[in-house]
C-alpha cells in the first residue's frame, strides 16, 4: 500500500482589507493589509467543486510608514483590537490566490510569498515575528 504524503509548503498571503476598517483608522493607516498563512499543497472543497485554500489569519498590517512613533503605536493598538473580531480562518478559491503576484514577505503590497516552511506553527510564528 502506497501511503505517500504531500509535504506542506506554507505561504504568506497579503490582502488589501482597507475597505473593512473604519474611516478614522484608514485615514491614518492609508492602507490595511490582512496577513494570512496557507499551505499551497492543501486544497479544500467547501460544499463546491472549486478548490479553496484554508487561510489562517495572523494579523493586520498598515501601509503608512511615515507615522510618528507615538501615533503609530496608538494606531497599532487600535488595529490589534480590531483584529480580535476577525475570523481565524478564511477560505479563498485557489485560482484567486494563484493569480496574485509573487512578493517578498516584507513588501507592502498585495500578493503571495513562499515562506519555504513545512510546519504550520513555525510559519505562523515566522510571520508574527518578522512580518507584523
What would you say this structure looks like, in words?
The chain has 132 residues and is α+β, with helices and mostly antiparallel strands. The chain is built from four helices and five strands. The protein has helices at residues 23-29, 69-83, 94-98, 120-130, and strands spanning 10-16, 32-39, 52-62, 89-93, 111-117. A five-stranded antiparallel sheet has the order 4-3-2-1-5. The model has no long low-confidence stretch (mean pLDDT 94).
Write down how many β-strands occur, each being a DSSP E stretch of 2 or more residues.
Answer: 5
Indicate the proportion of strand residues: 25-35%
Q: In order across it, which strands form the biggest sheet? A: 4-3-2-1-5
Q: Quick check: average pLDDT? A: 94
Distance between the termini: 44 Å
Task: Kindly list the characteristics that best describe this protein.
132 residues; alpha+beta; 5 strands; 29% helix
Amino acid at each position: 500500500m502506497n501511503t505517500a504524503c504531500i509535504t506542506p509548503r506554507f505561504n504568506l498571503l497579503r490582502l488589501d482589507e482597507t475597505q473593512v476598517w473604519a474611516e478614522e483608522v484608514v485615514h491614518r493607516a492609508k492602507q490595511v493589509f490582512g496577513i494570512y498563512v496557507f499551505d499551497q499543497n492543501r486544497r479544500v472543497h467547501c460544499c463546491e467543486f472549486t478548490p479553496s485554500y484554508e487561510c489562517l489569519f495572523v494579523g493586520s498590517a498598515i501601509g503608512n510608514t511615515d507615522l510618528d512613533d507615538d501615533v503609530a503605536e496608538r494606531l497599532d493598538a487600535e488595529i490589534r483590537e480590531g483584529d480580535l473580531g476577525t475570523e481565524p480562518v478564511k477560505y479563498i478559491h485557489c485560482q484567486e490566490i494563484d493569480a496574485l503576484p509573487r512578493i517578498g514577505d516584507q513588501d507592502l503590497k498585495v500578493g503571495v510569498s513562499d515562506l519555504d516552511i513545512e510546519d504550520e506553527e513555525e510559519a505562523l510564528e515566522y510571520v508574527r515575528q518578522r512580518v507584523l
